[in-house]
Amino acid sequence: MDGVSKLESRLECPLTVSCAKMPEAYSIVPLSSPGAFRNFLVGVLGGLVRTLLPLLLLSALFAFAAEKSVYDYTLNSIDGQPAPFAAYKGKVLMVVNVASRCGYTPQYSALESVYEKYKDKGFVIVGVPANNFGAQEPGTDAEIKTFCTRKYNVQFPMLSKVSVKGSDTTPLYQYLTDTKSNPKTGGEIKWNFTKFLVDRQGSIVARFEPEVTPDSPQVVSAIEQALGK
């Protein structure tokens, strides 16, 4: 037998792969048949993809949800320009829903005072006008800005008016009040001047109800603690 005949003889040797646990269609595959072996591999890989792909997608979705923070949201400034919260990364942030005709409106003075005291240390207050409670913020953005600057000399960032409660709640406040994402600080906004304190990593660390003034010992202590981290 010459060399070519010996090679052909070897290639035609009935080598097989027995796959006891594979589907019947793939239980015995002749390795001497490239087409059959290729189909076997395609079938196995296809099954793995169909099984694993949904699991990978679900894992990615859960990971995305777990990583949500205030930095993922963008609202408009009171002047109508995009105001991404990602701009506040690395700072301690207080988010307050405000109103111009509320019994708590004088808290603007304390908010500005606390802002001026700690802003050089990396502290920012963001005012979020909302008309959800007693229709106490009926004005336009321009009117709100004029009121805040003339009456209280507000210098901290102010946003365009949004809704913080109900079916039209802005996405930022959907996140802030979500009890699943934020079990300790979530829950529906009860009134104007509810305050959320966010640390330098974007995590919500405290919530203060409207009656708690911005310059109260408990709020100041929480701000200083967050600034110290």
Structure described in brief:
This protein has 229 residues and is α+β, with helices and mostly antiparallel strands. Helix content is 37%, strand content 15%.
Q: At the third CATH level, what is the topology name of the largest domain?
A: Glutaredoxin
The major pleated sheet works out as:
4 strands, mixed
Uncertain segments:
11-20
Query: What integer value in Å does the Rg equal?
Result: 31 Å
- Write down the CATH class of the largest domain: Alpha Beta
Helices and strands: which structural class? Answer: alpha+beta
Q: Helical percent range?
A: 25-40%
Taking the alpha carbons of the first and last residues, their distance comes to 83 Å
- Note the total helix count: 6
Total domains, how many?
A: 2
SSE layout:
Elements: H1 3-11, E1 16-18, E2 28-30, H2 34-66, E3 74-76, E4 82-84, E5 92-98, H3 107-118, E6 123-129, H4 141-152, H5 171-176, E7 195-198, E8 204-208, H6 217-228
Parallel strand pairs: 5-6
Antiparallel strand pairs: 1-2, 3-4, 5-7, 7-8
Explain this structure.
This protein is of the alpha+beta class. It has two domains: 3-66, no CATH class; 70-228, Glutaredoxin (3-Layer(aba) Sandwich), CATH 3.40.30.10. The chain contains six helices and eight strands; from the N terminus they run αββαβββαβααββα. It is elongated, with a radius of gyration of 31 Å. Mean pLDDT is 85; it is low at 11-20.
List keywords for this structure.
two-stranded antiparallel sheet; Glutaredoxin; four-stranded mixed sheet; 229 residues; 2 domains; alpha+beta; elongated
